[in-house]
Automatic annotation (TrEMBL):
SUPFAM superfamilies: TPR-like. It comes from Exilibacterium tricleocarpae. GO terms for biological process: proteolysis involved in protein catabolic process. This is M48 family metalloprotease. One of its GO terms (molecular function) is metalloendopeptidase activity.
Length: 443
C-alpha cells in the first residue's frame, strides 16, 4: 500500500511539473509574436504568423486542396471566369484588396465553398446549383473574402500551434497512467472543440462583413439571408453524428438566418442580376442529369454491382462526353472487371479532357505497371506527383526504381511512402529495412 501511494504521489508531482512546462511552452510561443489589428473589424487579435507567411501558406496548400477535392471544373471554363469576375468586384470594396485573391470553381458535387489564408477561394459546382442569382453568389464569395481579409486562417493556425504544443506536453504527462490513452483522446477532442467554437465566431464575423462588401458593390444583401435559408434547408432531415456536426465548416442555423435578415434591413443595395447568373450556370444545370447518373453509378459500385455502375457511367458520358470524372470512373469499373487495357484507354480519355488533374494519371500508371508497361507507368506516376503527391504513387515509383537498379531513388520514394500509415506505409518501411535503411515512424 505505501508503495502504491508513493507511485501516485510521484505521478502527481510529474503531472504538476509537466503542466507548468506546458504553460511555459505556450507563454514562450506567445512571446514570439504579439497582437495585431484585424484589418476588417479594427479589433486586436493575436497571431504568430506574418502577412507574408499567411500568403505563403495559402499558396503552398492551394493546389493540394484543389487536386484532392475534384480539381478545377473545366467543362465550361467561362463559368470560372464569371465567378472570378464577381469575386474581384467584391475584392475592390473589401478591407484588404491587396491580397493575391483567386477564385475557382471546383468539380465537386458537394455544396460547399472555402477560403485559404492569403485569398485563395473556391466554390464547388454543387453549391452553384443551389443559388438563384448573382447576389447569392456575392454572398458566398463575400463571406469567404472576409475569412481571408480578417486573417481568420492565420488566427486559426496560431491556435493550432499553441494547442499542439500544449497537447504534446499533456501527452507526455498522461503516457504512463492507466487512463493515458483516454486522457489523450479527451485532450484532442477538447482542442478540436475549442477550434470549432472559434470557427463559429469567425463565421458570424464573415456573415456580417460579407454583407457589407455586398452592399458596397451594390448587391442586395438579402441574398445573404436567402443563402443561409438554403443552407438550413439542405441540413434539414440529415442525421449526422455529433462529431460531424461539431466540426462542420459552415454550420447553418436559424439564428444566422435571423441575424442576416436584421442586418440586411440596415444596408443599401438592390442588384440581383438573376438573368446573367442563370446564363453563367446554364451548362452545369444542363449537365446535372449526367452528374446524377454518375452519383448513381457510385452507389451501384459501392454495392459491387459493377455492370450496372458501368451502364450508368456510360449513360453519363453520353450526356456529357467532355467530363473527365466520368471517363475516369469508367476506367475504374473496367479495371475492377479485369479489363485493364480498356481501363487504360478510358483513363487516357479522362486525361485528354482535363490534363491538369492528378487522379487519372495515377490510375493509368498503376494499370500500366500491372500490364508490364513500366516506362509509361513511371511517366504517368511522376506526372501525377507533379499535381498531387500521394503515398500510392511514391510506393509504386519506389518499386519501379528498384526494378531499374536505382537504389537511391527507391529509398527516396519509399521514405516518402513510409511517412503515411496503412498497409502501404508498412510495406514501404519493410522495403527500406531490406535496403538497410532504418525508417522513421509516421507522425
Amino acid at each position: 500500500m505505501p508503495d502504491t501511494k508513493c507511485k501516485i504521489r510521484s505521478r502527481l508531482v510529474r503531472l504538476t511539473f509537466l503542466a507548468k512546462t506546458a504553460a511555459l511552452v505556450i507563454s514562450a510561443l506567445a512571446a514570439l509574436s504579439g497582437c495585431t489589428v484585424n484589418p476588417v473589424t479594427g479589433e486586436s487579435q493575436f497571431t504568430i504568423m506574418t502577412p507574408a507567411q499567411e500568403v505563403a501558406l495559402g499558396e503552398k496548400n492551394y493546389q493540394p486542396y484543389l487536386q484532392s477535392q475534384g480539381g478545377a471544373y473545366v467543362v465550361d471554363p467561362d463559368l470560372s471566369v464569371y465567378v472570378n469576375r464577381i469575386g474581384q468586384k467584391l475584392v475592390k470594396v473589401s478591407d484588404r484588396p491587396g491580397l493575391p485573391y483567386e477564385f475557382v470553381v471546383l468539380n465537386n458535387d458537394v455544396p460547399n465553398a472555402w477560403a485559404l489564408p492569403g485569398g485563395k477561394i473556391a466554390i464547388n459546382r454543387g453549391l452553384l446549383l443551389h443559388l438563384q442569382d448573382e447576389s447569392q453568389l456575392a454572398a458566398v464569395l463575400g463571406h469567404e473574402i472576409v475569412h481571408a481579409a480578417a486573417r481568420h486562417g492565420a488566427s486559426q493556425a496560431t491556435r493550432n500551434v499553441l494547442l499542439q504544443a500544449g497537447a504534446q506536453v499533456v501527452g507526455l504527462a498522461t503516457r504512463d497512467t492507466a487512463y493515458g490513452e483516454y486522457a489523450a483522446t479527451g485532450a484532442s477532442l477538447g482542442a478540436a472543440a475549442w477550434q470549432a467554437r472559434y470557427g463559429r465566431d469567425q463565421e458570424l464575423e464573415a456573415d456580417r462583413f460579407g454583407m457589407e462588401y455586398m452592399a458596397r458593390a451594390g448587391y442586395d444583401p438579402a441574398g445573404a439571408t436567402e443563402l443561409q435559408e438554403t443552407f438550413v434547408k439542405l441540413a434539414e432531415g440529415r442525421q449526422s453524428g455529433w462529431l460531424e456536426g461539431l466540426f462542420a465548416s459552415h454550420p447553418p442555423s436559424q439564428a444566422r438566418v435571423d441575424a442576416n435578415r436584421v442586418r440586411a434591413a440596415t444596408l443599401p443595395g438592390d442588384k440581383r442580376n438573376r438573368a446573367e447568373f442563370q446564363r453563367a450556370i446554364a451548362q452545369i444545370k444542363k449537365d446535372q442529369p449526367a452528374y446524377e447518373k454518375h452519383q448513381a453509378a457510385f452507389k451501384a459500385a459501392k454495392n459491387k454491382d459493377y455492370p450496372q455502375a458501368l451502364t450508368l457511367t456510360e449513360q453519363a458520358i453520353k450526356l456529357q462526353p467532355r467530363e473527365a470524372h466520368f471517363w475516369e470512373t469508367k476506367g475504374h469499373l473496367l479495371r475492377l472487371q479485369g479489363k485493364k487495357s480498356a481501363a487504360a484507354t478510358a483513363y487516357g480519355r479522362a486525361i485528354s479532357h482535363n490534363p491538369e488533374y492528378f487522379s487519372p494519371y495515377l490510375a493509368r500508371g498503376l494499370v500500366q505497371k500491372s500490364l508490364g508497361k513500366y516506362e509509361t507507368a513511371e511517366q504517368d506516376l511522376v506526372r501525377s506527383q507533379q499535381y498531387l503527391g500521394t503515398q500510392t504513387a511514391s510506393y509504386h515509383l519506389g518499386e519501379l526504381a528498384l526494378r531499374n537498379n536505382q537504389r537511391e531513388r527507391a529509398i527516396e520514394y519509399f521514405s516518402a511512402a513510409a511517412q503515411g500509415g496503412g498497409e502501404l506505409g508498412q510495406a514501404a518501411r519493410q522495403q527500406l529495412n531490406t535496403l538497410g535503411i532504418s525508417p522513421s515512424s509516421p507522425e
